[in-house]
Amino acid sequence: MSKAQWIKENLSPGEEYAGLILGKNGEQDYHLILLPGEAEKVTWPKASEWAGKAGGELPTRREQSLLFANLKEHFKAAWYWSCEQLASDAGFAWDQYFLNGGQGDHHESVEGRARAVRRLPIQ
Description:
By secondary structure, this protein is an alpha+beta fold.
């Protein structure tokens, strides 16, 4: 099957194929798909809620790195929430800056941007 045919069969209008995420520690490999739409000025809890309503989830830090590498043009030059909290302080969550690719963290009450992704397991 060609890439174009696979995309036609697996992506809905407005979705963008980001690439393949390799499973680690026995986890399954999967395709990462960026959903349409963007939330602005949302706290981390509101960003997670928005992503769920959009039909997906906030991306992990690994996924955000792939999004930066393959779909940077679909993001503003700003930072976006990930789904991951800091292990050392549950009041903070990780984010990805889509200007230069850096990852950092903000307190969960700070308002930022969010994009949602969905994962399509490889059978």
